[in-house]
Structures are given as structure tokens and as C-alpha cells.
Amino acid sequence: MIGPRHTKRNQRSPRILFRHLAPLRFILYPAASMTRGAMTMDGLQTNSTEHGCDIALDGLCFAVDGKAILSDISVNLTASRIGVVGRNGSGKSTLARVIAGLVAPTSGTARMDGLHLSQDRKAALRQVGILFQNPDHQIIFPTVDEEIGFGLRQLGHGKDAVAKMTRDTLTRFGKSHWAGAYINTLSQGQKHLVCLMAVVAMGPKTIILDEPFTGLDIPTKAQLNRYLANYKGGLIHITHDPADLAGYDQVIWLEQGKLAQNGAAADVLPAYIARMTALGGSDDISDLAG
């Protein structure tokens, strides 16, 4: 058991260091209060309130083995709710990893609050959290407590402080009864929530959501969306479904690794939907790569 577990942990450690996700690895707790206004969701607050994103991409390019994945992307992302849309293979997930500092650009720059996160791991831990599609690719510990506590230890907190902060996080999310629960007993949606709690516990300013709703049923998706709506930090939501971005402020549209459009959601999303609808009437599925 020790050998395989250590192997699994070593394979995932680069991602885990940047998981906090916010946090959005993912990104969005039923606490005693869960809606804006009369009730609050303290579990979803960061160290700042209503924090907008401050991300500058300048001539950003990323390639793998000489193949361009992202090409010459220059854009400033400043809203508190930012969507990134595009077809499968358009470079959305790669962009998320570049912004989070998980990988460095091949050329050009990506800065968050003026920092190159790929060059400053400690800053990255506090600046951004990222949530991926599959929580099983993010979770590495057997219990809820251990999973939430891992990121806090990465921030340098001692054993007693980690234990208290973990309990506090579960309480704020209305999940005190999850203490000690084994991950393998949880549903997929509950695992997503564990990832979210682990990210939020670290207090990042921004959470990147990399298509976290894929494969979830409608009720689970609605509940996670409710958590997200109350998150006080910045959110960057990667998706191919415009419905996920209701109420978002800014949207960028990627097409084959290039920036097709950037602007207010009210302007970009209708254009994106019209283009995707037109493509749906074609037969480009027949085209082979290369």
C-alpha cells in the first residue's frame, strides 16, 4: 500500500501545490447562510472582499514539442467574474494552467497582480487556486480533514493551526459532520465540494474553474453554482457552455489557441453562440487533424 500511494502522490504533487480551488483546483458550501443579502457564506470569503482579477497576458504563446497550443494572446482581465469559452481543443485548459503558474509560457508573459506566478511558487499559493474537471485527479488523501489540511501546511501553518483551520472551514461550510469522513465514501459532487473547501481554506484571491461541471447532474451543478455565486474573490470559469456564465462580467473566446474576441459578456457570448450554432450545421467533425 505504501509504495503505490507514494507513487500516486509524487505523480500529482505539481498540481496539488497550486490546488487551493480557490479555488474553483475548484471552483465554489452549504453553510448556515448561503445567499447574498440576509445570509452570508463566510466559507467562501477570501482575505479581501469583492476582489476583481488583475491579470495581464502579453504576447502569450505556449507550445509543446513545437506544436502551438496558445498563440500571441494579449489581453487584460480585470473583472471579478471572467469566463473563458471555446470549443474542445481551443487551449482553454492550457490557458488556465499558464495563468495559475502551473506551466510557464513558451514566450510572452502572464502576470497576476504584477507577479509571474510560474516563477514564484509561494506567491502562486496565495494568489490563485484551481479546480479541475475530475476531483479524483486532485484529491490525494484518504480523509476530508487531511485533504483540506494539506494546502494549509503548504502555506507554512503548524499542526495545531492546520487542525483548527480545517475544523473552521468545515463549520463555515456547514459540513462539520464530514470531519474524518473517507473520500471513497463520497459522491462525485461531494468530492468536488471537498476540493473547493481545500482551495478556499487557503484564501486565494482568485479561483480558476476548469470545466468543473462536466458530468454532474443538474441538482449538483445548481448547488455548486450557488456556492460560486457567493464567493468573494475573483472567479475565472473555463467552459464551452455559455449557460455556466450567467451573470459574469467579462468573457474571452479562444479559437484554435488564438484570441477570437474579448469584452463584456453581453457582447461576446451572443457572438460565440451564433458561431457555434453555425458550426453545428456544418460537418467539420469529418476533418482529420494534420
TrEMBL record:
Residues in a coiled coil are none
What is this protein's name?
A: Biotin transport system ATP-binding protein
Which family is this protein grouped under? Belongs to the ABC transporter superfamily.
Give the highest taxon in the source lineage. Answer: Bacteria
Which ranges carry the ABC transporter domain?
A: 55-281
PANTHER family referenced in this protein's UniProt entry, alphabetically? ENERGY-COUPLING FACTOR TRANSPORTER ATP-BINDING PROTEIN ECFA1, HEAVY METAL TRANSPORTER
| Gene3D superfamilies tied to this protein | P-loop containing nucleotide triphosphate hydrolases
A GO molecular-function term, please? ATP hydrolysis activity
Q: Which UniProt keywords apply?
A: ATP-binding, Nucleotide-binding, Transport
> Gene Ontology terms, cellular component aspect?
ATP-binding cassette (ABC) transporter complex
Q: Name one Pfam family in it.
A: ABC_tran
